[in-house]
Description:
Layout: H1 2-16, H2 20-38, E1 47-51, E2 58-62, E3 65-66, H3 69-101, E4 107-116, E5 119-124, E6 128-132, E7 148-157, E8 164-168, H4 172-182, H5 184-187, E9 191-199, E10 203-210, H6 217-222, H7 227-235, E11 240-245, H8 250-257, E12 265-269, E13 274-280, H9 284-288, H10 293-302, E14 305-311, H11 314-325, E15 327-331, E16 336-339, H12 349-357, H13 363-367, H14 371-375, H15 382-397
Helix pairs in contact: 2-3, 4-7, 8-10
Amino acid sequence: MGQELLAIIEQIEREKGIDKEILFQAVESALLSAVRKVVDVKPNEEIKVEIDRTSGKIRAFKGKKEIDSIDLGRIAASTARQVIIQRIREAEKEVVFNEFQDKVGELVSGSVYRFDKGNIIVDLLGKAEGIILKHHQSPKEEFKQGQRIRAYVVEVKKESKGPQIVLSRSHPNLVKKLFELEVPEIYEGIVEIKSIARQPGERTKIAVWSKNDKVDSVGACVGMRGNRVRNIVNELQGEKIDIVRYNEDTREYIKAALSPAKISEIKLDKENLRAEVIVPEDQLSLAIGKHGQNVRLASKLIGWELDIRARKTTLEILEGVKEELGAVETKKETGTILFSLEELSGIGEKTIAALKEAGFNSIEDVAQAKVEELLKLKGIGQKKAQRLIEEAKKLISK
């Protein structure tokens, strides 16, 4: 029995990676339970079972007296086997739990084993199974059975069936760990990832900073001809990645985070961590992004609330005051507004009609006219023509 027991324990250690001492203790505990069932024990009488770690010999004691070895062999053979198997299973679960508990916050590799009610079951190199719950999946990714997969370990739970290893493909730190693998400067601590904002399957913004002035943080992450970031994009099945240069100057940091949109002005409310960002009108949709994605990720990356507003053009400002000033038309080409002829003093309806018939529809047209042109009109003489032109110029200057 002794040599056979040693051989079994050594085989289990090799195949399952369970420490021999754990197995010896499990067997001793199992034998102790079995001995108590068949041996008469007085109250407060101690029962003890020992296994020699070298020979495998089993000895049991009731008080100070050793129990007959023949009886012990019969007990060990008939009752201990199932208990030992159970303890081995428990020990296996504990080994798996401890191994993956140490990997929480890290990446693990495996292959897609099966699909269960929308969840992905992952075979972790034969050691255990992990699960990617539906809400931990990236919506744009698709996997096939047997496909290689890398995932971020979110947590490890102890359950009756064994440890549940919860994995994620949507966690922002998945991107962070991929950059650590792909960019040596990050792994070595030369380049630091300051912040990450992610919309899984769509876009990620990552802010990086270099501790060494000679190392360009963005360039290091992009890699030669974009190889490094391309490898990560491929791993994430096409998710876009914006690499942002971190800056202690909040305004510069906001500009970088909202790239590629061009920023005109930034007003900071440091007390409430809020910024009003003014952009040219043609940059507004770019700054906000599709369904607000760009500004939302930039806001999360920086930790500030960003309010994007468009700057009004000169034309829009003029349009706003046109009626108040008595203007009739906004001229796009010059960015000016045209005033009606009625603003000119000392002219009647017939003169206005004559001017319009000749193509002079606004004060600006009259101001740019020559005296000779106005003299051709009925009812306008030399002095009146000069007066109209001078008055039109004065009104425009106002």
